[in-house]
TrEMBL record:
Higher taxonomy: Bacteria, Pseudomonadati, Pseudomonadota, Betaproteobacteria, Burkholderiales
Cofactor needs: pyridoxal 5'-phosphate
Alphabetical list of Gene3D superfamilies matching this protein: 3.30.70.260, 3.40.50.1100
Protein name, UniProt field: L-threonine dehydratase catabolic TdcB
Catalytic activity, as annotated: L-serine = pyruvate + NH4(+); L-threonine = 2-oxobutanoate + NH4(+)
Amino acid sequence: MIELADIRRAAERLRGHILDTPCVESRTLSELTGCQIWLKFENLQFTASFKERGACNKLATLAEAPDPPAGVIAMSAGNHAQGVAYHAQRLGFRAVIVMPRFTPGVKVERTRGFGAEVVLHGDTLDEARAHALGLAQDQGLAFVHPYDDDAVIAGQGTVALEMFQAVPDLQTVVVSVGGGGLIGGMAAALKALSPTIEVIGVQALRFPTMYNAVKHTHLPVGQSSIAEGIAVGTPGERTRRLVERWVDDIELVDEGDIEQAIVMLLEIEKTLVEGAGAAGLAALLKHPERFRGRKVGLVLCGGNIDPLLLAAIIERGMVRAGRLARVRVSARDVPGSLARITATVASAGANITEVHHQRAFTMLAAQNVEIELVIQTRNRAHIDAVLQALHQDGFQAQQL
């Protein structure tokens, strides 16, 4: 089991090779959640993820060995892959990365861009891991586990050293949990530096594997999550022991919570995070009473997200916030009806982005038409104002 001394040695090894990322207060998020929030921007690392730390520390220890391997191999859904590929290229190692087939294309291409040989295999990390272990045996490559490795865990734990140096009076640190490398290393460091600090893990409700392991529950595990970076089927053995010893609790958040947190960080902090990176804020939004009044540190652990997924999350976030709405209006099917409807919506201050006439698939009289509008609004109260304006002008209208 790693200790603070291991993490400090890792920090020395990483000096000059990774970024000491900013850890700054978010006044707006603090006001919204009722606690004082400090954000650790690990999404600003060169490969946009904390995973660089563990990968670099592991590869550096391999390079220091008397008989270093000719190459390394790893399995990853993306962030660990990029970290291994980038630092293998820097240190002169051949790198082979096995990635599940569902991995977002942006992560695959970035990994290839760092000179790694990418092998797409399996639908889960466990299937990718089994294939990677076989290739390691066949080709004599050193396997670099994404989380269940002491050198990797120690590297990830350096995040805690930087946070503690920046804000030594933090009361709670909230960390997303997949395989457990980040929270395991951070908790070991934080509890040694300040035994009273509270360390809270966050998992996606669809992948509560560490939660099940340490709480001895049997919550079902899903097939996918927008937080694919923490969608891990099997937590590590080393990391599980660290979590059991040092982590105070684990919270679960659902997909909608994570989506909301991604949009809030983008709008308020002007920073892009992936699902795993937003899980900590999602927990604060879902359980505000637990953190109210406390000085809380959040790790924005990664920023690699597929652009199409991000676009969908933003649009869904606008719907939830009442800034995008779908409205059905019933009207006489005569010239000028649509013009009157659009004029009414415009006078109410909303913008129409889509219009669809429905004549055949409706129970209205043959002389009538249903018109579905997608409108941009300011908030939910504005939607109600638009509907009221349509009613006052003689139209039947409802939000869908």
